[in-house]
Amino acid sequence: MKRFSLSLALIAGLLVAIPPNANAETRTFPCGSSGGTYSVSMPAGVAFKAYRCSGLLTIDSSVKIIETNAFADQFLISVIIPNSVTSIGDNAFADTTIASVTIGNSVTSIGRNAFVWAPLTSVIIPNSVTSIGPGAFAETSLTSVTFGSSLTSIGPYAFSNTLIASVIIPNSMISIGEHAFDQTPLTSVIIPNSVTSIGARAFANTLLTSVTIPNSVTTIESGAFANIPTLTTVSLSENLKFLGINVFEENRSLTRIEYCGNLTGVPITPVCPSRAAADAKAAADAKAAADKIIQDAKLEAGRILAAAKATASKKTTITCFNGKLTKKVTAVKPKCPAGYKKK
Protein backbone atom coordinates (compact mmCIF):
# COMPACT_ATOMS: atom_id res chain seq x y z
CA MET A 1 0.00 0.00 0.00
CA LYS A 2 2.86 2.38 0.90
CA ARG A 3 4.63 1.56 -2.38
CA PHE A 4 1.41 2.29 -4.29
CA SER A 5 1.02 5.66 -2.53
CA LEU A 6 4.64 6.55 -3.26
CA SER A 7 4.13 5.69 -6.92
CA LEU A 8 1.10 7.97 -7.07
CA ALA A 9 3.14 10.76 -5.50
CA LEU A 10 5.93 10.31 -8.04
CA ILE A 11 3.45 10.31 -10.91
CA ALA A 12 1.85 13.47 -9.54
CA GLY A 13 5.29 15.09 -9.30
CA LEU A 14 6.06 14.19 -12.88
CA LEU A 15 2.76 15.60 -14.04
CA VAL A 16 3.51 18.87 -12.28
CA ALA A 17 6.96 18.96 -13.88
CA ILE A 18 5.57 18.50 -17.40
CA PRO A 19 4.91 21.90 -19.03
CA PRO A 20 1.37 22.65 -20.20
CA ASN A 21 0.53 21.10 -23.55
CA ALA A 22 3.74 19.06 -23.56
CA ASN A 23 3.13 17.97 -27.15
CA ALA A 24 2.73 21.55 -28.30
CA GLU A 25 5.50 23.88 -29.43
CA THR A 26 7.41 25.64 -26.67
CA ARG A 27 8.77 29.07 -27.50
CA THR A 28 11.32 31.02 -25.48
CA PHE A 29 11.26 34.80 -24.98
CA PRO A 30 13.85 37.16 -23.49
CA CYS A 31 13.13 38.11 -19.90
CA GLY A 32 14.50 41.39 -18.60
CA SER A 33 17.99 42.76 -19.01
CA SER A 34 20.33 39.98 -17.91
CA GLY A 35 19.88 37.37 -20.59
CA GLY A 36 17.06 35.59 -18.79
CA THR A 37 14.23 33.80 -20.58
CA TYR A 38 10.70 32.54 -20.03
CA SER A 39 8.91 29.74 -21.85
CA VAL A 40 5.51 29.78 -23.49
CA SER A 41 3.57 26.74 -24.62
CA MET A 42 1.98 27.37 -27.99
CA PRO A 43 -0.62 27.64 -29.38
CA ALA A 44 -2.31 27.82 -25.94
CA GLY A 45 -0.10 30.77 -24.98
CA VAL A 46 0.73 29.51 -21.49
CA ALA A 47 3.77 31.13 -19.88
CA PHE A 48 5.10 28.49 -17.49
CA LYS A 49 8.79 28.89 -16.68
CA ALA A 50 11.11 31.87 -16.17
CA TYR A 51 14.86 31.71 -15.76
CA ARG A 52 17.17 34.49 -14.55
CA CYS A 53 14.67 37.26 -15.21
CA SER A 54 15.58 40.75 -13.99
CA GLY A 55 14.86 44.42 -14.56
CA LEU A 56 11.95 45.49 -16.78
CA LEU A 57 9.70 43.01 -18.56
CA THR A 58 6.91 43.40 -21.10
CA ILE A 59 5.30 40.01 -21.51
CA ASP A 60 4.81 38.99 -25.14
CA SER A 61 1.32 39.42 -26.59
CA SER A 62 1.22 35.73 -27.52
CA VAL A 63 0.77 34.91 -23.82
CA LYS A 64 -2.82 34.22 -22.74
CA ILE A 65 -2.27 32.53 -19.39
CA ILE A 66 0.44 33.11 -16.82
CA GLU A 67 0.82 29.72 -15.18
CA THR A 68 1.42 28.87 -11.51
CA ASN A 69 4.90 29.93 -10.31
CA ALA A 70 5.75 31.18 -13.82
CA PHE A 71 7.84 34.18 -12.68
CA ALA A 72 8.21 33.42 -8.97
CA ASP A 73 11.52 34.23 -7.25
CA GLN A 74 12.77 36.36 -10.14
CA PHE A 75 14.56 39.71 -9.86
CA LEU A 76 12.12 41.70 -11.95
CA ILE A 77 11.54 45.35 -11.09
CA SER A 78 8.65 46.22 -13.39
CA VAL A 79 6.20 44.09 -15.37
CA ILE A 80 3.69 44.98 -18.08
CA ILE A 81 1.05 42.30 -18.58
CA PRO A 82 -0.52 42.69 -22.04
CA ASN A 83 -4.23 42.70 -22.90
CA SER A 84 -3.87 39.19 -24.35
CA VAL A 85 -3.57 37.68 -20.86
CA THR A 86 -6.80 36.43 -19.26
CA SER A 87 -5.55 34.92 -16.01
CA ILE A 88 -2.65 35.24 -13.60
CA GLY A 89 -1.94 31.94 -11.85
CA ASP A 90 -1.12 31.09 -8.26
CA ASN A 91 2.27 32.38 -7.09
CA ALA A 92 2.87 33.73 -10.60
CA PHE A 93 5.00 36.67 -9.37
CA ALA A 94 5.51 35.60 -5.75
CA ASP A 95 8.63 36.63 -3.86
CA THR A 96 9.98 38.83 -6.64
CA THR A 97 11.40 42.36 -6.54
CA ILE A 98 8.56 43.83 -8.61
CA ALA A 99 7.80 47.43 -7.55
CA SER A 100 5.48 48.25 -10.46
CA VAL A 101 2.97 46.20 -12.42
CA THR A 102 0.52 47.05 -15.19
CA ILE A 103 -2.27 44.50 -15.50
CA GLY A 104 -3.93 44.23 -18.92
CA ASN A 105 -7.63 44.83 -19.28
CA SER A 106 -8.47 41.23 -20.28
CA VAL A 107 -7.35 39.61 -17.03
CA THR A 108 -10.37 38.13 -15.23
CA SER A 109 -8.70 36.40 -12.28
CA ILE A 110 -5.64 36.92 -10.12
CA GLY A 111 -4.57 33.73 -8.41
CA ARG A 112 -3.55 32.75 -4.90
CA ASN A 113 -0.41 34.52 -3.65
CA ALA A 114 0.12 35.91 -7.15
CA PHE A 115 2.23 38.88 -5.94
CA VAL A 116 2.91 37.93 -2.32
CA TRP A 117 6.09 39.45 -0.80
CA ALA A 118 6.73 41.71 -3.81
CA PRO A 119 7.62 45.35 -2.97
CA LEU A 120 4.64 46.71 -4.94
CA THR A 121 3.54 50.20 -3.82
CA SER A 122 0.37 50.63 -5.89
CA VAL A 123 -1.82 48.62 -8.21
CA ILE A 124 -4.78 49.26 -10.49
CA ILE A 125 -7.12 46.31 -10.85
CA PRO A 126 -8.73 46.55 -14.32
CA ASN A 127 -12.47 46.39 -14.88
CA SER A 128 -12.15 42.90 -16.36
CA VAL A 129 -11.04 41.27 -13.08
CA THR A 130 -13.84 39.44 -11.22
CA SER A 131 -11.87 37.71 -8.48
CA ILE A 132 -8.71 38.26 -6.46
CA GLY A 133 -7.38 35.08 -4.91
CA PRO A 134 -6.25 34.41 -1.33
CA GLY A 135 -3.08 36.27 -0.37
CA ALA A 136 -2.75 37.72 -3.86
CA PHE A 137 -1.14 40.98 -2.67
CA ALA A 138 -0.35 40.04 0.94
CA GLU A 139 2.90 41.14 2.56
CA THR A 140 3.60 43.71 -0.16
CA SER A 141 4.37 47.43 0.19
CA LEU A 142 1.05 48.53 -1.28
CA THR A 143 -0.12 51.95 -0.12
CA SER A 144 -3.00 52.20 -2.58
CA VAL A 145 -5.22 49.93 -4.63
CA THR A 146 -7.86 50.86 -7.19
CA PHE A 147 -10.52 48.26 -7.87
CA GLY A 148 -12.25 47.73 -11.19
CA SER A 149 -16.01 47.73 -11.65
CA SER A 150 -16.46 43.96 -12.16
CA LEU A 151 -14.81 42.62 -9.02
CA THR A 152 -17.11 40.28 -7.08
CA SER A 153 -14.81 38.69 -4.50
CA ILE A 154 -11.66 39.44 -2.54
CA GLY A 155 -10.10 36.27 -1.19
CA PRO A 156 -8.74 35.58 2.30
CA TYR A 157 -5.60 37.52 3.25
CA ALA A 158 -5.63 39.18 -0.20
CA PHE A 159 -4.27 42.52 1.10
CA SER A 160 -3.21 41.61 4.64
CA ASN A 161 -0.03 43.12 6.07
CA THR A 162 0.18 45.87 3.48
CA LEU A 163 0.31 49.66 3.90
CA ILE A 164 -3.10 50.48 2.41
CA ALA A 165 -4.73 53.40 4.26
CA SER A 166 -7.91 53.94 2.25
CA VAL A 167 -10.03 51.77 -0.01
CA ILE A 168 -13.24 52.12 -2.03
CA ILE A 169 -14.86 48.75 -2.70
CA PRO A 170 -16.82 48.69 -5.99
CA ASN A 171 -20.58 48.17 -6.26
CA SER A 172 -19.97 44.80 -7.91
CA MET A 173 -18.45 43.26 -4.78
CA ILE A 174 -20.33 40.38 -3.13
CA SER A 175 -17.93 38.90 -0.59
CA ILE A 176 -14.90 40.09 1.34
CA GLY A 177 -12.72 37.19 2.47
CA GLU A 178 -11.34 36.53 5.93
CA HIS A 179 -8.31 38.62 6.95
CA ALA A 180 -8.61 40.45 3.60
CA PHE A 181 -7.34 43.76 5.04
CA ASP A 182 -6.05 42.49 8.38
CA GLN A 183 -2.96 44.21 9.80
CA THR A 184 -3.14 47.32 7.57
CA PRO A 185 -3.20 51.03 8.54
CA LEU A 186 -6.64 51.33 6.93
CA THR A 187 -8.41 54.49 8.14
CA SER A 188 -11.24 54.66 5.62
CA VAL A 189 -13.34 52.06 3.81
CA ILE A 190 -16.55 52.35 1.80
CA ILE A 191 -18.53 49.11 1.71
CA PRO A 192 -21.16 49.23 -1.06
CA ASN A 193 -24.74 48.00 -0.95
CA SER A 194 -23.81 44.89 -2.95
CA VAL A 195 -21.67 43.12 -0.36
CA THR A 196 -23.51 40.27 1.38
CA SER A 197 -20.76 38.76 3.55
CA ILE A 198 -17.69 39.97 5.44
CA GLY A 199 -15.21 37.29 6.45
CA ALA A 200 -13.59 36.62 9.81
CA ARG A 201 -11.12 39.34 10.85
CA ALA A 202 -11.47 40.94 7.40
CA PHE A 203 -10.76 44.42 8.85
CA ALA A 204 -9.14 43.46 12.15
CA ASN A 205 -6.08 45.34 13.41
CA THR A 206 -6.69 48.41 11.26
CA LEU A 207 -7.10 52.09 12.16
CA LEU A 208 -10.73 52.62 11.13
CA THR A 209 -12.62 55.29 13.09
CA SER A 210 -16.14 54.54 11.84
CA VAL A 211 -17.84 51.77 9.88
CA THR A 212 -21.16 51.70 8.05
CA ILE A 213 -22.46 48.26 7.14
CA PRO A 214 -25.04 48.52 4.30
CA ASN A 215 -28.38 46.69 4.37
CA SER A 216 -27.17 44.18 1.77
CA VAL A 217 -24.85 42.55 4.33
CA THR A 218 -26.41 39.48 5.96
CA THR A 219 -23.29 37.84 7.43
CA ILE A 220 -20.39 39.22 9.46
CA GLU A 221 -17.98 36.54 10.63
CA SER A 222 -16.07 36.38 13.91
CA GLY A 223 -13.66 39.19 14.73
CA ALA A 224 -14.30 41.00 11.46
CA PHE A 225 -13.65 44.38 13.10
CA ALA A 226 -11.65 43.29 16.14
CA ASN A 227 -8.66 45.02 17.70
CA ILE A 228 -9.25 48.47 16.21
CA PRO A 229 -8.20 50.97 18.89
CA THR A 230 -9.50 53.96 16.91
CA LEU A 231 -13.00 52.67 16.14
CA THR A 232 -15.67 54.86 17.80
CA THR A 233 -18.93 54.37 15.87
CA VAL A 234 -20.54 51.53 13.93
CA SER A 235 -23.77 51.41 11.94
CA LEU A 236 -25.04 47.87 11.38
CA SER A 237 -27.38 46.51 8.74
CA GLU A 238 -30.93 45.77 9.86
CA ASN A 239 -30.88 42.73 7.57
CA LEU A 240 -28.10 40.89 9.42
CA LYS A 241 -28.86 37.20 9.83
CA PHE A 242 -25.55 36.14 11.35
CA LEU A 243 -23.15 38.02 13.61
CA GLY A 244 -20.10 36.02 14.60
CA ILE A 245 -18.45 36.01 18.01
CA ASN A 246 -16.18 38.85 19.10
CA VAL A 247 -16.86 40.84 15.94
CA PHE A 248 -15.88 44.04 17.80
CA GLU A 249 -13.48 42.53 20.34
CA GLU A 250 -10.95 44.83 22.05
CA ASN A 251 -12.31 48.05 20.57
CA ARG A 252 -11.88 50.22 23.66
CA SER A 253 -12.90 53.48 21.96
CA LEU A 254 -16.21 52.12 20.64
CA THR A 255 -18.99 54.24 22.17
CA ARG A 256 -21.88 53.99 19.72
CA ILE A 257 -23.43 51.14 17.73
CA GLU A 258 -26.47 51.94 15.63
CA TYR A 259 -28.57 48.83 15.09
CA CYS A 260 -32.32 48.21 14.86
CA GLY A 261 -32.25 44.41 14.51
CA ASN A 262 -32.67 41.59 17.02
CA LEU A 263 -29.28 39.83 16.94
CA THR A 264 -27.18 39.75 20.08
CA GLY A 265 -23.41 39.85 20.40
CA VAL A 266 -22.59 43.55 20.24
CA PRO A 267 -20.30 44.73 23.07
CA ILE A 268 -22.36 47.78 24.01
CA THR A 269 -26.07 48.49 24.05
CA PRO A 270 -27.03 49.55 20.52
CA VAL A 271 -29.29 52.45 19.66
CA CYS A 272 -31.89 52.38 16.91
CA PRO A 273 -31.82 55.75 15.10
CA SER A 274 -35.27 55.25 13.54
CA ARG A 275 -36.82 54.40 16.91
CA ALA A 276 -34.97 57.23 18.59
CA ALA A 277 -36.26 59.61 15.93
CA ALA A 278 -39.81 58.29 16.40
CA ASP A 279 -39.52 58.65 20.19
CA ALA A 280 -38.14 62.17 19.82
CA LYS A 281 -41.00 63.10 17.46
CA ALA A 282 -43.60 61.66 19.84
CA ALA A 283 -42.08 63.60 22.75
CA ALA A 284 -42.02 66.78 20.65
CA ASP A 285 -45.65 66.26 19.60
CA ALA A 286 -46.69 65.67 23.22
CA LYS A 287 -44.88 68.80 24.35
CA ALA A 288 -46.46 70.81 21.54
CA ALA A 289 -49.91 69.57 22.54
CA ALA A 290 -49.29 70.42 26.20
CA ASP A 291 -47.96 73.85 25.25
CA LYS A 292 -51.10 74.46 23.16
CA ILE A 293 -53.36 73.53 26.08
CA ILE A 294 -51.47 75.90 28.35
CA GLN A 295 -51.54 78.67 25.75
CA ASP A 296 -55.28 78.20 25.14
CA ALA A 297 -55.91 78.30 28.89
CA LYS A 298 -53.92 81.50 29.19
CA LEU A 299 -55.85 83.06 26.33
CA GLU A 300 -59.19 82.04 27.88
CA ALA A 301 -58.16 83.36 31.28
CA GLY A 302 -57.15 86.63 29.66
CA ARG A 303 -60.46 86.86 27.85
CA ILE A 304 -62.42 86.24 31.05
CA LEU A 305 -60.33 88.76 32.94
CA ALA A 306 -60.77 91.34 30.20
CA ALA A 307 -64.53 90.74 30.19
CA ALA A 308 -64.63 91.05 33.94
CA LYS A 309 -62.68 94.27 33.79
CA ALA A 310 -64.92 95.57 31.06
CA THR A 311 -68.01 94.68 33.09
CA ALA A 312 -66.53 96.15 36.22
CA SER A 313 -65.75 99.46 34.52
CA LYS A 314 -69.01 99.86 32.58
CA LYS A 315 -71.08 102.95 33.53
CA THR A 316 -74.86 102.85 33.89
CA THR A 317 -77.48 105.57 34.23
CA ILE A 318 -80.27 105.63 36.82
CA THR A 319 -83.17 108.04 37.36
CA CYS A 320 -83.74 109.49 40.81
CA PHE A 321 -86.77 111.51 42.00
CA ASN A 322 -87.65 113.73 44.93
CA GLY A 323 -91.30 114.71 44.70
CA LYS A 324 -91.71 116.33 41.37
CA LEU A 325 -87.96 116.71 40.93
CA THR A 326 -86.05 114.09 38.88
CA LYS A 327 -82.33 113.65 38.33
CA LYS A 328 -80.32 111.21 36.16
CA VAL A 329 -77.11 109.85 37.65
CA THR A 330 -74.48 108.12 35.43
CA ALA A 331 -71.61 106.20 37.08
CA VAL A 332 -69.97 102.75 37.37
CA LYS A 333 -72.07 102.20 40.48
CA PRO A 334 -74.61 105.04 40.36
CA LYS A 335 -76.33 106.18 43.57
CA CYS A 336 -79.12 108.67 44.04
CA PRO A 337 -78.21 111.89 45.86
CA ALA A 338 -79.42 112.49 49.37
CA GLY A 339 -83.16 113.03 49.48
CA TYR A 340 -83.66 111.26 46.15
CA LYS A 341 -84.92 107.83 45.55
CA LYS A 342 -84.25 105.56 42.64
CA LYS A 343 -87.15 105.53 40.27
Question: Main traits of this protein?
Answer:
three-stranded parallel beta sheet; Leucine-rich repeat, LRR (right-handed beta-alpha superhelix); twelve-stranded mixed beta sheet; alpha/beta; 343 residues
Summarize the structure.
With 343 residues, the chain is α/β, with parallel strands linked by helices. The protein has helices at residues 2-17, 273-312, and strands spanning 25-31, 36-42, 46-51, 54-58, 65-66, 75-80, 87-88, 100-102, 109-110, 122-124, 131-132, 144-146, 153-154, 166-168, 175-176, 188-190, 197-198, 210-212, 219-220, 233-235, 242-243, 256-258, 316-322, 325-331, 341-342.
Question: Could you please describe the fold and organization of this structure?
Answer:
The chain folds into four domains: 146 residues, Leucine-rich repeat, LRR (right-handed beta-alpha superhelix) (Alpha-Beta Horseshoe); 106 residues, Ribonuclease Inhibitor (Leucine-rich repeat, LRR (right-handed beta-alpha superhelix), Alpha-Beta Horseshoe), CATH 3.80.10.10; 37 residues; 31 residues, no CATH class. The protein is 16% helix and 26% strand. Strands 1-2-3-5-7-9-11-13-15-17-19-21 form a twelve-stranded mixed β-sheet, with no helix packed on it. A three-stranded parallel β-sheet has the order 4-6-8, with no helix packed on it. It has a three-stranded parallel β-sheet with strand order 18-20-22, with no helix packed on it. The N terminus is likely disordered.
